Amino acid sequence: MDQLQNIVSITNGQPVIGEQNLLLQEKEQLIPGSVQYTIKRFKKLPKTNIDDTGMMVYHFKKDEPKENHLELKFCISGNTYCRSKNTECDSCKFHQSVNCEERIDTIDLVSFKFTPSHLSQFVKGIKQTTFSDDILNFKHTSSFAKAMPLCGKTKMVLEALLNHSYSDSLENIYINAQTQMLLLYSMECMIGAKEDSFTSKFLANEADREKIAKAREILLMHISEPLTIKALSRKVAINECYLKKGFKEMYGTTIFDFFQSQRMEHAKYLLYEKRVSVTDVSSLLGYSSISHFSTAFKKHTGLKPCELLFH
User: Fold this and answer.
1) Domain map of the chain by residue range?
2) Which is it for the CA torsion 166, 188, 206, 213, positive or negative?
3) Using 50, 70 and 90 to split pLDDT, how confident is the model at 112?
4) Which of 99, 141, 175, 263 has a CA between 20 and 30 Å from the CA of residue 31?
5) pLDDT > 50? residue 80
6) Which residues are registered as beta bridge partners of 56?
7) Beta-ladder partners of 10
8) What is the pLDDT of residues 116-147, one digit of tens each?
9) Nearest-CA neighbor of 278 among 308, 302, 301?
């Protein structure tokens, strides 16, 4: 358990993490009311062996509820970092990092912090048990840190999050979506849910699961261009009913709720990080009027857009 909080500084007699020159990349997002994350990627030294590790840290303060939050922390090895990624490395751009001559093996530390208000958006999508209900609704009355098993789906999300080739706004959209999946899968791992135990028979077909995953990807690429379910189903060549049922089962939320959630998370990013005006954010996200956008934003976040802009 201590591996994530105090990553072993010496492994096989060699320093692993702690020397500044080993840090390859660091990314942090601290937008109020949104998931806050830190990603640090370190060079993996020869003969270094660290097991992939996960930890759930539950922070509860009865007298200071604003300080309550849930953290997911991971230490992952076996990925690679491309030194030329930001200069359009062709190998990485076409997802052929194995052929990249600039790649460096890494040890990656990632941390995600969820506030009660942010967690409340995902409660409906997670299989309810006494454990998940207590944690997601902050009914558990004492803090704890617990080692977390890393199932295949969790590892897949983490690897995709670390190895993507998006930048700027698209990167923010992508990371927000992956973070939501990471929470869903982590909770499933903690309660011992079986992987790929779908109730819909058609989801047993890998081709159908890939179509639904493609539909999710299309939604993320069209944050400013809302699509109807009919149009989305045509794009991925799957029955509308199957798409709706399959999406809910795979991702724990409806297509509309997922799209709206990602839309509002991106709005937070544009307002807080990029300082884009409320008028421009409304337009960029495809709203017909500022009032419609402001109403949707207030419903999702509890804040008026201008409150976050001038935070």
Assistant:
1) 1-194
2) negative
3) very high
4) 141
5) yes
6) 72, 146
7) 15
8) 877 766 665 556 667 777 888 888 888 989 88
9) 308
196's tokens: 């790929």
Please say whether the beta carbons of 304 and 298 come within 8 A. yes
Cα distances (angstroms) measured from residue 19 to each of 23, 37, 43, 263: 7, 22, 10, 39
Q: Which two tokens mark 238?
A: 């799957």
Side chain identity, residue 6: N
Distance CA 190, CA 187 (A): 5
Exposure string (b/e) for 270-288, b if CB count within 10 Å is 16 or more?
Answer: bbbeeebebeebbbbbebe
Q: Does residue 146 contact residue 239 with C-beta atoms inside 8 Å?
A: no
Rg (CA), the chain: 20
